[in-house]
Design brief:
The chain has about 270 residues and is α/β, with parallel strands linked by helices. Helices cover about 45% and strands about 15% of the residues. The strands form three sheets. A five-stranded mixed beta sheet has the order 2-3-4-8-10. The protein has a three-stranded mixed beta sheet with strand order 7-6-9, with no helix packed on it. Strands 1-5 form a two-stranded antiparallel ribbon. The protein has a domain of about 140 residues: Trna Endonuclease, Chain: A, domain 1 (3-Layer(aba) Sandwich), CATH 3.40.1350. Strand 6 and strand 7 form a beta hairpin. The chain has five helices and ten strands, in the order E-H-H-E-E-E-E-E-E-H-E-E-E-H-H.
Length: about 270
């Protein structure tokens, strides 16, 4: 997911999300943990610098090495410039991750509304070296949902066009990376769900662009991936045939529940 999210802090770009997502359970505790971790990191870095300075002074004292301020000044300037350059890269990456995170949470809120219609919703299912943003299980089948949060031009509201083979944003070149990614995720989840099963499940890949208008062009035949605004997903599901019984839904949900849990680690104070 994260590689697909684009920056929205540019002067000519804006977020496609109309409102920030709801807060998550335990988010205040998570924010407090991160704040404490940041403070600990700052303390550790400062302490490490002081230790290095102390060791340097002891080294000079033991070997009677004269002071050389110009060399240390040059090293300090280089370190400052390198730190500043990395800071800009980190800031851009953090903004990128925040946009992707908010997009996933916004889509999650839309999907959670489908619970009232009997669907089971799972978030952030971990694979071997990737994650599936969301999985939806219900009478219409099993769906992997990949969220692509793309920023928009500041003073324009372009559309996304989808012809079944590639995705194109107005005035940009077509691309198919999200389709390839979604298909790979669906294949992996199919393998996981069908392990040891006599009657196999099928999984349909879906790519959603929150905040974008999606226009379907060309023939709709042989279209194995849905590309949608997340708010349109409910209507698409309503038009699908009912293929899973409650027992099959429970069976798939049981596997996904185990996959969606993180092991609890015991840590000493």
């Amino acid at each position: 997911m994260f590689r697909s999210a684009r920056l929205f802090n540019s002067k000519n770009r804006r977020t496609p999300l109309q409102m920030t997502p709801l807060r998550l359970p335990g988010q205040s505790a998570e924010e407090h943990i991160r704040s404490l971790q940041d403070k600990w990191t700052d303390f550790f870095v400062r302490a490490s610098c002081l230790v290095m300075l102390a060791l340097y002074e002891w080294w000079r004292w033991l070997f009677s090495i004269p002071s050389n301020p110009p060399v240390l000044t040059i090293v300090a300037i280089v370190a400052i410039l390198a730190t500043w350059r990395r800071r800009r890269a980190y800031k851009a990456e953090i903004n990128n991750l925040r946009l992707g995170r908010d997009g996933e949470r916004t889509v999650g809120e839309v999907l959670d509304l489908l619970r009232e219609k009997g669907y089971r919703v799972f978030h952030d299912i971990l694979g071997p070296n990737f994650n599936i943003d969301h999985v939806l299980v219900g009478s219409a089948g099993i769906f992997t949902i990949e969220t692509k949060t793309r920023s928009k031009p500041l003073h324009a509201d372009p559309k996304i066009f989808y012809d079944g083979q590639a995705i194109r944003i107005e005035n940009e070149h077509p691309f198919d990376e999200p389709l390839i990614q979604a298909r790979a995720q669906a294949r992996w989840l199919t393998m996981v769900l069908n392990d040891g099963r006599a009657i196999p499940f099928t999984v349909r890949p879906v790519v959603v662009f929150p905040g974008w208008f999606i226009e379907r062009i060309g023939s709709k035949s042989n279209c194995d991936v849905w590309v949608l605004n997340p708010k349109a997903l409910g209507a698409f599901l309503a038009n699908e045939p009912r293929i899973l019984t409650p027992a099959l839904i429970d069976s798939a949900a049981s596997v996904l529940t185990q996959r969606g849990r993180h092991p609890i680690t015991q840590q000493s104070a």
